[in-house]
Amino acid sequence: MSPRDEGLAPAGELVLRNVGQLVTMAGQAVPFAVEAHAALWLVGGRVQYAGPESGLPPAAAKSPTVDVGGRLATPGLVDAHTHLLYAGQRAQEVALRARGAGYLEMLQAGGGILATVAATNAASDSEVLDATRRRLSEALRAGTTTLELKTGYALDPAGELRLLGLAERLRDEGPMRLVLTYLGAHALPASHAGQPGRFLEELATTHAAVAGRAQFVDVFLEPGVFGPAEVDPYLADARRHGLAVKVHVDELQDGGGAALAARWGAVSADHCAYTSPAGIAALQAAGTVAVLLPGTAGYLHPEHMAPARQFLEAGVPIAIGSDGNPGSSPTSCLGTLLPWAAAWLHLTPEEVWTAVTRGGARAVGRTDVGQLTPGSWGDVVVWDADDYRVPCYRYGTNLVQAVYVSGRQVAP
Ligand SMILES: [Zn+2]
């Protein structure tokens, strides 16, 4: 918990009663707990009681009460991987992809990430802030209450620090909890073509200014972008500055990224679409969370999804993120991706819920969100559904009825 969270949290009290099903994510031995005929009592922005309505402490009667009409309530979703801080959009790429252009091909032609870099660097602070606020608002209305937000669309040291400053402003505004990640190493700018090592050396000069502001540093490790030879010294420098590590790995091929992530004790390795059994074993040994991004895989290469079942069977905790970004996953809404996570990753509703709540929290280094247990933040989503399986089943519609952060209604 950071002091900023205390600032976001009101001291309000609230009872949600007549909860048809309450998903708490309580307990380690039984990682998926559903209470029927339940109630939730929030005090000081935090969970005071979560359980059967018949067990609600008498003192709760003095708190304002909302009858949720037998609906489902769950922890707010934790989206552990987004790139929502940018200007512009790339709808023109839909037709290019239809003609067969690949991700790296568009990147090398100055499109892809580099097009968003140009638009973002040309935009004013208020333009970037306003565009990002709209996306964060969409995410909130679809049930995301904690969201990891990466920089990465400036690709030069000063520009990346500007984006970090804008991300801090958005974090301080609330109401969503933002976890900030410094992803200057998102792609290689044209100015440094063929010189990934030199680019990362220059970027590393910002780490002293990033420390204490971003929680994580992240690198796009992929053959043809950044490889282990330049990433290793870059992450060593980040660690010297006290920054925790996340790594984009194995999105387009098995580049040995999972083993590198494990070597650096990464909190998460993200994408993992092509991670090998040896890579999975390395993540398990390191306790690294695999953040799976089915929206992106579905958008770019639906024939090749991350091997979610293999991660689970190997004992690697998984999270599911939206990867919200203007190219390969143009959404802000993890809450509308749940049916696709289930269908494409071959996961049960219980596994999907775990991955988008507790799994996401672990992937952003937090234990106070992603569950509705006494002491956790009162971040709650009420769904227009009476069964926890419904949001993993019905697609194309936003089933969120109400969103609470720290016990305060923030959406709709
Ligand atoms: Zn990403």
Notes on the structure:
This protein is globular. Strands 1, 2, 3, 4, 5, 14, 15 and 16 form an 8-stranded mixed sheet that branches. The chain has an 8-stranded parallel sheet with strand order 6-7-8-9-10-11-12-13. Mean pLDDT is 93; it is low at 1-10. It has helices at residues 3-8, 93-98, 103-108, 113-122, 125-141, 157-173, 196-204, 207-210, 228-240, 257-263, 277-286, 294-300, 308-313, 338-345, 349-356, 358-363, and strands at 13-23, 34-43, 46-52, 65-67, 72-75, 77-79, 144-150, 177-185, 216-220, 244-249, 268-271, 289-292, 318-320, 380-383, 400-405, 408-411. It starts with a helix and ends with a strand. The protein has 412 residues and is an alpha/beta fold. It folds into 2 domains: 3-76 and 371-411, Urease, subunit C, domain 1; 78-363, Metal-dependent hydrolases (TIM Barrel). It is 34% helix and 22% strand. Helix 5 packs across helix 6. The structure holds zinc ion (ZN). Zinc ion binds at residues 81, 83, 248, 323.
- Say how many strands there are: 16
Low-confidence region ranges: 1-10
Overall geometry: globular
Name the ligand types: zinc ion
What is the total domain count? 2
- Tally of separate helices: 16
Helix content: 25-40%
Kindly estimate the percentage of residues that lie in beta strands according to DSSP. Answer: 15-25%
CATH class of the largest domain: Alpha Beta
Kindly provide the radius of gyration, computed on alpha-carbon positions and rounded to a whole number of angstroms.
Answer: 21 Å
CATH fold annotation of the largest domain: TIM Barrel
Please, what is the CATH homologous superfamily of the largest domain?
Metal-dependent hydrolases
* CATH architecture field of the largest domain: Alpha-Beta Barrel
